[in-house]
Amino acid sequence: GVGAWAVVSGHLGASGRDGRGSGGPARTFPTLAAPPADPARTLTHDDPLRLWVGGDSLAGELGPALGEGVGQTGIVDTRVDYKVSSGLASDDLRDWRSRAVSEMLTYRPEEVVFIIGANDAPIVNAVDADGNGTPDWEESYAAKVDDMMRILVGGNHRHVIWLGPPTLRNSAGDKGAAAITRVMRDVAARHAPDVYFVDTYA
Fold first, then answer.
1. Residue 170: how many CB atoms within 10 A of its CB?
2. CB 143 within 8 Å of CB 88
3. Which residue would you say has higher pLDDT here, 114 or 37?
4. N or C: which end of the chain has fewer CB atoms below 10 A?
5. C-alpha angle 51/56/60, rounded to 5°?
6. Which of 63, 72, 50, 57 is nearest to 20 (CA)?
7. Residue 114: how many CB atoms within 10 A of its CB?
């Protein structure tokens, strides 16, 4: 419910970094507006909010910090699941869609935070084999993002905070991150208000 959303989003800004390594400046994420009101349950020490944080190596930084922050309330239990160098473009390191199906069934989170995309930047190119005006990578990637968002939201309409890739140091990678961000934002708009997209590139 809205109360749970406030607990999570209230600690998000204090937990993130810009993904440029340990020497990178701290990144303050924008304040998240509350989603439309829905029936909220009472959170207690015996029955805390189940929060799942997943994604690439940035989730490995964000997740523990966010978990510690919200954990201090005594009413949030956080599970962090990340894989270094992973992305949605390729399932070689981790099939995130299959993983998410399993995690949603076993942990049954009520709120989700997912950060991905930095390792997907290299797939961005201008190839348009079918000549429809849209690069081939974009259509394929948008479909994978859409699948992942559907899985995370699930039938119970979980609230999902989805964070895209940050700015990257090299110009080619940074251009790719910007394109990935645009695709994610467009797909997330189709899943609103269940999915709230946080533009970490801006």
1. 9
2. no
3. 114
4. C
5. 60
6. 57
7. 23
Positive or negative: CA dihedral 180, 120, 77, 21:
negative
Per residue, the 3-state secondary structure of the chain, as one string, reads: CHHHHHHHHHHHCCCCECCCCCCCCECCCCCCCCCCCCCCCCCCCCCCEEEEEEECHHHHHHHHHHHHHHHCCCCEEEEEEECCCCCCCCCCCCCHHHHHHHHHHHHCCCEEEEECCHHHHHHCCCCCCCCCCCCHHHHHHHHHHHHHHHHHHCCCCCEEEEECCCCCCCHHHHHHHHHHHHHHHHHHHHCCCCEEEECCCC
Pairwise CA distance, residues 181 & 187, whole Å: 10
Separation of alpha carbons 107 and 73, rounded Å: 20
Q: 185, exposed or middle or buried, with CB in 10 Å at 0-12, 13-18, 19+?
A: middle
Pairing of strands 195-198, 76-82: unpaired
Kindly state the average pLDDT of the residues 161-175: 95
CA dihedral of residues 178, 81, 79, 49 (deg, nearest 10): 40
Quickly state the pLDDT bin for 177 (edges 50, 70, 90).
very high
| 76-82 and 111-115 beta bridge pairing | unpaired
